[in-house]
Amino acid sequence: MHRLLALILALSVPGLAQAGIVFTPHLSEYARLAPGQYTEFTLITTEIEEIYDRNGRKVHTGAPFIPPGDSVDATLLLLKYLWIGNLFRDSEIGFLRDRPQFCRIIGTLGHQQATGNAVRRGLTAGQHSGASGLGDLFGLCGIYGLEHRYGPLKFNGLFGTTVKFPIGRYDTDSLLNTGTNYWSVIPQLAVHAELFGRIYLDGTVAWQFNGDNDEPAFGGLTPTDPADVRNLEVNLAWKFSEHWFADIGWSYRETIGPNRYDKFTLNLRDQPLPPTTACNSTQALLGFSIPDALCNSLEFFYLEPRPGPYRDRGIKGTLLTAGLYYIYRTSTVLNLRVAQPISGRGGQIDAVYDVYAMPPDSPGAAPISQLVSTQNAVQEAASVSASPYLELRLVYLFWAP
Amino acid sequence: MNAHHLRKTGTRLFVALAAGFILAACAPREWLLPKLGIEPPRLHDFPADYQPPISAQTGQPMPGFGGGGTALPQTPVIFVHGNTVSARYWLPARRYFLDAGYPVNALWALGYGWDNVRYFDSNDLSVDSIERIVDSVTAYLSKTTGREIRQVDIVAHSLGVTLVRQWMLQTNGWHRVRNFVGACGANHGVWTAWPDARGQNRVVSFELAPGSPWLAQLNRHGETPGHTRYMMLYDGTGWADVLFPKPSEDSPALDGAYNIAYNREHGTYYDHLELPRVPETMRAIVDFLRAAAEPLPQAEPPTIVREGNVLRASQEDAQLHCTDDRRYPNAAMPPVREQPLAANRLYTCYAHNPRSGLSSPMARYMRSDPGEIRRSAPNLRASPPPGSYEQPQRIRLETDDPQAFIVYSIAGPPESGSPLYTEPIYIAGPVRLQALAIAPDGSTSAPLVLDYDISLELIEARRTLQRQLEPDTPVHYTAQRRKGR
Could you say which residues form the signal peptide (chain A) (predicted)? Predict the structure, then answer.
């Protein structure tokens, strides 16, 4: 009896996976660098034309409700400040005096905008489709391990913990946001190795503990309980000369269990719906259908979503990266990198809508039918881009020659 | 406690920790801790009766280690660290040398510089500190052992290599150094230094840029002067030591030194910081140091005696090492019992006694016949005049006596063995340049004392926003330099 209700609003937009990007290592990311202060400016830009669905298939953004060709254009600017030093040097604290500490602050600014049909569809649910402004703030502190050498191999470990402060701009009525509205604590273990003085390996395992999001965006299609995420990343670089490096990287992130959604409210702004709209499954603008029996007997329909709880199947994504580095003197590093997703899984939930013949909040109103709609979850915690992104990075050392 | 509370507590702890670190990052602990009434921890492993010298940079007693026993059966070793670090760099070497049988009394390291990457050290600005270190260590050991300690061995790393070489050159101090081991020194430049550097690092960049006039000055009259034994230890592959890539992989080598391109020769991969601190290379250093004979304990060093136009050593068993081509003599020069002075030639000599192992300072001589009528002592003048300049200067010295030679120093009053003026002197930092013209008969000009201030602050004072808008605004420059500049 129940037929698929394919709501128009299921655009599935990942935004930029900020946390994922932040922890994708670069050349010598985890090396015991010289003590000092480093600043870094990273510009990331992407045009998300494809995403992954819950079965790991690559589909175009907004599929199947809008035709291919529209996208979400996103630009993220990361401003990083890194301090490396040793507060305990020359002290009696044996463990710490030999192991430098570091702290990093990462501020983010973002601009994201959906295009064309994606915007129009968002408006039917009273939702915005663009966001600009301050992103979340990341604070990271940690400690380097000792350096070890075995012949041509030199390596060191690192332990750090990042806290994501959800200070970014966040609008519950927006398809896209530059902030996430939930805290994260991310301990990580990392290693840096150098082989023959020419090959550099950086890798990390990070566990991202996510807090709750009591105010989900876009009608509850961002999780209220984002699942924790495990990250595994490796970067391999080759030194051509003191000035030129190239690297390739592999990055994997996967939620541990499903994301949970229990404040699902996404609905059409203009109700009731006439049968000419609600019952025409080929109607391009709406793209859902109501069972024929109801269509033939009622003049108007009201839809009311059930808030949940729902779960997706969890998300995951694998990226390959390739980059080129130019080191100008020793104070400036220019880095161009391309990241290409090679597999993934996005969040989707089967949301339940009650169909009413009168306003749902009317006395005596009772659902006349229930319909299930597969909704694509949105934003960083729940959606996975299948489109490449481009990264332009500038690292500047205040003190270097 | 559930996971939510754990996260919240962990987050608060992290925020507090991060705030502490960020505060520390913005305000160095050497500034911050005294404000809180806490003495910043520093390496200070000296005997109670030893007063470390004052650093020419920080104005504070130098941190470090050294001494601690009474026995001193061998020449003491002074370790000199590189840029932006301090004496702690040499703690692994101290452990190794102790294990190799060195007495604790013989091992010294003092931190001469800022010990901070925000404030770069430089060669010229640290020469005074090296002088103080060597004076302090030899004076202390002479006092505690009851015999004059005239020589030291020096093991230096990175900036310390060119710094010690500059100290020996400027103070005519080769006779005080029995062995000099330099690891990873930018003797012929380092690619990270640029001749157009701006900012607090610029003095050392001016000095160590490949092909810099400063390096030419350091190397011009011989790379291994004196009877000092030189060993230069470096990477040589162009890959392991990031400071010396191809084609400058042999930059640290010195003509006349025992050069070991260790990684190239042994197939190892030790990097810039590791090279002098791993057991294999430290074994090589110890072997090199021990290959030199110990000086006789109570011996006096020889001096050079001039009798008319002939030079002799003051001791029967001592000999002279001389050159007449303006280069410094060294142990490779054939020794002579006496050195006649030919006309119109400038001789640079030192006396060395192979039995005692001691040498005299360098000195220069010209033939002077008694019948020659000389007018007054030579005059000496300099251009550009002393003062504050934005950019490094080349100081031209001129004397009105065409037969006189000119010597100079940035480390006190010059003497005849001080650096010989043959080309304009390159000044990259704030130094006091002192010069002297010496006639063949030994008469000298009045000493010229010139204070040059190559100043970043002057640049900043001249280019304020207000002066951009109103060029007539006076320049407020007080010749005060901020630290590290």
Answer: 1-19
Domain A18-256+311-348+377-397 falls under CATH 2.60.40.1080: no
Contact pairs from chain A to chain B, CB under 8 Å? 101
Per CB-CB distance under 8 Å, the chain B contacts of A149 are 269-270, 274
Reported as a pLDDT band with limits 50, 70 and 90, residue A401 is low
List of chain B residues whose C-beta atoms are within 8 Å of the C-beta of residue A398: 118
d(CA A20, CA A380): 9
> Residue A183: its chain B contacts at CB < 8 A?
7, 11
Domain boundaries defined on chain B: 44-290, 304-366, 380-454
How far is B256 from B271, CA to CA, in rounded Å?
A: 24
In terms of phi and psi (left: phi > 0; alpha: psi -120 to 50; beta: otherwise), the region of A309 is beta
State chain A's mean pLDDT as an integer: 84
B197 in reach of chain A (CB within 8 A): yes
Cβ–Cβ contact B118 with A under 8 A: yes
- Model pLDDT for residues B454-468, shown as the tens digit of each residue: 887 777 788 888 888
Cβ count near A39 (within 10 Å): 13
Inter-chain contact A197–B240, Cβ cutoff 8 Å?
yes
DSSP state of A71: -
Q: How far is A251 from chain B (nearest CA, A)?
A: 26
Determine whether the interchain pair A401/B17 forms a contact, defined as Cβ–Cβ distance below 8 Å.
no
pLDDT at B394 over 90: yes
Residue A32 CB partners (closer than 8 Å, separation 6+): A100, A144, A147, A156, A192
For residue range A82-102, what is the model confidence (pLDDT) as tens digits? 888 888 888 888 888 889 999
Pure H helices in A135-186: none
Is the domain spanning B44-290 CATH 3.20.20.70? The answer is: no
